Amino acid sequence: MFSLKNRVAIVTGGASGIGRGIVESLVEAGATVVIADLNEAAAQHTAQEVGAHAKKLDVTNREQVRTVFAEVHEEFGQIDVLCANAGIFPQAGLDTLTDEQWDTIFTVNTKSTFITVQEALKFMKPRKYGRIVITTSITGSHTGYPGWSHYGATKAAQQGFMRGASLEVARDGITINGVLPGNILTDGLRDQGEEYLAQMARGIPALRLGDPRDIGNAAAFLASTEAGYITGQTLIVDGGQILPESPEAILQAE
Asked: Are 12 and 19 in contact (CB under 8 A)?
């Protein structure tokens, strides 16, 4: 079960972090995976390490998306899976947040989702098959955090888009779902230091931060043929982070 053999997948922002975890899981499941990332060198490096392919892509540029997706289709004959994972998460408090920062994060996180999904559907609809998995977040739809109000807004918007879009393509054999990571141990988090990481882990019932492969495995399931009756849904992968009513709830469980 859950084999992705003979499936072709594109993972945007797949060179590192959660994206790399998704790539590794899809490759392990048997898919032919194309990493589409703005950082071409990192994409090539990851592709060589895990047995994938790489292409440079600015997900905010529709012409580039159209060209790269067409190249993937020409080279491999089909596009079965899109993992729309590319995104940014710069911190900015409300007192300093600018119009430019707001517009930039919505362009990168939300508009790119719209662009990549729309372009992928052009190849999925004729075949009456497709799996689209959007990497969104618990932030915005379930939780909030100071300094990331703009980020949370983009992630909530992704989920609203997902629900409406999934209805439009359900009869075409195409599903659109979202994976909602909690705190995942990526290089960006490691840079915050061990004390910060330990503090974050204490707030999670599982008492650990997630691994990129935790998200990758969830994405691989939603990308499978067997998940074909699941659409417009979100799968939270957070070690139970959003469950406790208070920090004391975690302590009581020990």
From this structure: yes
